[in-house]
Amino acid sequence: QSALTQPASVSGSRGQSITISCTGTSSDVGGYNYVSWYQQHPGKAPKLIIYNVSNRPSGVSNRFSGSKSGNTASLTISGLQAEDEGDYSCSSYTSSSTLVVFGGGTKLIVL
Amino acid sequence: QVQLQESGPGLVKPSETLSLTCTVSGDSISYSYYWGWIRQPPGKGLEWIGSIYLGPSTYYNPSLKSRVTISVDTSKNQFSLKLNSVTAADTAVYYCARDMGLEGRFDPWGRGTLVTVSS
C-alpha cells in the first residue's frame, strides 16, 4: 500500500480537463511544498511534469498544472489529448525516516 | 543533456544479491545533485530505494535499509545498487535517476531494467 493515495483511474474526453488527486498527511504533502508529478507511458520511464507543487520543468506543456490544498495535491490536465493517456504518479518529501514517498499511480484514459 | 542507463542481470536467484549499475552521461556525477534508485513492481506503484550524494552520504528507505548498499564510482561516472537476500517480492523494474535534493523530485530517469527474482 502506497503512502500517498491516488485514484486508480480517471477518464476524460479529448479537449476536456481532468484532475488527479494525491492525498497524504501533514508529515508529507500538507507540510511541505515538495510535491512532484510524473507521467509514464507503457514500458517507458517516468517523466517529471510538475515539481514543488506547481512548477513545470522546461519543455513541459502548460496544459499541465499543479496545486495543493491541505493534505491533498492535485494535477490538472486541460485540453486533453490522446497522447496524455498513461499513468500519473505523485511523490512528496516526508519528515518521516522514509524521506520520499510515492502515490500508487493513476491511469488516465482519454476517451 | 543528461542521460542515465541501467545495466545488470535481468534474473537473480532467491537469497542472492541483486547488483545494478547506472552510467551517467552529459553530467558529472561529481558535481552537485543526489543520484537515486527507484523501483516499480509489476502493476504497482513506485518505491524509492535510496540516494547517494558525493561525500559520500547515503540515504535509504528504512524498509530496505538492512539489505541495500548504494555506492559511486566517480572515475567511471557511475553509481551502483546492491540489494541482498532477494525474494520474489523484489521483482521489479529498477530505475536510476538524478535526485534533485531528497524531496521526491527525480529528473531525468533511466529507461529502467526489469529484474526478476526466480530460481
Describe what you observe in this structure.
The complex is a heterodimer of chains A (111) and B (119). By secondary structure, chain A is mainly β. In chain A, 0% of the residues lie in helices and 43% in strands. Chain A contains no helices and nine strands. The termini of chain A are far apart. The model of chain A has no long low-confidence stretch (mean pLDDT 96). Chain B is mostly beta strands and 119 residues long. Chain B contains no helices and eleven strands. Chain B has strands at 3-7, 11-12, 18-25, 34-40, 47-53, 57-60, 68-73, 78-83, 92-99, 106-109, 113-117. The model of chain B has no long low-confidence stretch (mean pLDDT 94). At the A-B interface, strand 3, strand 7 and strand 8 of A face strand 5 and strand 10 of B.
Briefly characterize the structure.
The complex is a heterodimer of chains A (111) and B (119). With 111 residues, chain A is mostly beta strands. Chain A contains no helices and 9 strands.
Keywords:
A: 111 residues; mainly beta; six-stranded mixed β-sheet; three-stranded antiparallel β-sheet; 0% helix; B: 119 residues; seven-stranded mixed β-sheet; four-stranded antiparallel β-sheet; 52% strand
- Low-pLDDT stretches of chain A: none
Task: Report the principal-axis shape of chain A.
Answer: globular
Question: Whole-number radius of gyration of chain B?
Answer: 13 Å
Structural Rg of chain A = 13 Å
Q: Which stretches of chain B of 5+ consecutive residues score pLDDT under 50?
A: none
| Total number of beta strands of chain B | 11
- Count of discrete alpha- or pi-helical segments spanning 4 or more residues of chain A: 0
Blueprint (SSEs and pairs):
The complex is a heterodimer of chains A (111) and B (119).
Chain A (H helix, E strand, L loop, with lengths): L8 E4 L5 E6 L11 E6 L6 E4 L13 E6 L2 E6 L8 E8 L6 E3 L3 E5 L1
Parallel strand pairs in A: 1-9
Antiparallel strand pairs in A: 2-6, 3-4, 3-7, 5-6, 7-8, 7-9
Chain B lengths: L2 E5 L3 E2 L5 E8 L8 E7 L6 E7 L3 E4 L7 E6 L4 E6 L8 E8 L6 E4 L3 E5 L2
Parallel strand pairs in B: 2-11
Antiparallel strand pairs in B: 1-3, 3-8, 4-5, 4-9, 5-6, 7-8, 9-10, 9-11
